[in-house]
Amino acid sequence: MRHLFANECHHCWLQSLVIYLCSITVLVLCNHGLATVVDEDNQRTSACIPCSATYLAADPNYPDMLSNIFVSTESCESSLSVIKVIKVSNLHRSLEGEGSHRHLISKLNTTESDSSSTYLDRFNCELVIIETLNGVFADPFELQRLVNREVYLNAAVFGDTNLELPAALSNSSFVEIHMDLAPSSKANHELVVQLPLHVRYPPLDGSDYSNIEISQPDVYIRCQKRNIDKNCQWGVSVRELGPTEKVKWRIPCGDDAHSTVVSSVTFVSALVCALSIVFASILYHPTIYTKDQ
Prior knowledge:
The chain is of the alpha+beta class and about 290 residues long. The protein has one domain (about 45-250). The chain is about 30% helix and about 30% strand. It has helices at about 1-40, 75-85, 115-120, 140-150, 260-285; strands at about 45-50, 85-95, 100-110, 125-135, 135, 155-160, 175-180, 190-200, 210-215, 220-225, 235-240, 245-250. The strands form three sheets. A six-stranded antiparallel beta sheet has the order 1-11-10-4-7-6, with helices on one face. Strand 10 and strand 11 (about 235-240) form a beta hairpin.
């Protein structure tokens, strides 16, 4: 009897050990799965944002806004499904023009699957390109004229919008441009984005030139289902285009050693012009002509 009781206790101890080890294994696997979900969530490249958010760069958390916003609805999930069939590739960049006013040209190709044309009939899809500028600026009024001419759907400048500041006192700015993807329903359609840029006055330097680098833009695709009034949301996804060569702009700058001579000549020229206007006003005697009736 005592031998049977000992065997039963031995079996109970083994069962408890097995149950304990299984519980530990399950907890480890669950924690690993949760960690994987959190890691994937932190690296999210798609999100749902309300339709009232016209511009992405207007979000104070840009460019990390996609990791903070994800309030999904059925219409947004279908928009994200449409975005998956739209591919963007082959980004080529160049700077055209001369002087202090030039155009930044960005060319890229969009391709869709055979069934995407039926999807695009039921969705509004846009290409969103956001440029980060330092040392140069885009005139928001000039961009608005392009929107009025229907070159772009929307365009705006965020950040430092003071056009009169020199480069030494200015901060970076974001330029956001929206283009309609409906005309690009054909395979290998090339989209061309022309951004007019102006130079900010660089600080004085003895090297005679200042080099400005314009880095690769952020590219997004966003879609929304047509004819939705309530709970309207954009499905937004980042497009990774791979490394692209930076655009360089060589800008002439003044030599600090010549600043005294330039200031003196400018002051003398302004003084001579002002005195000429004063003397002309004093010596001028208008003659009044009368006409006999």
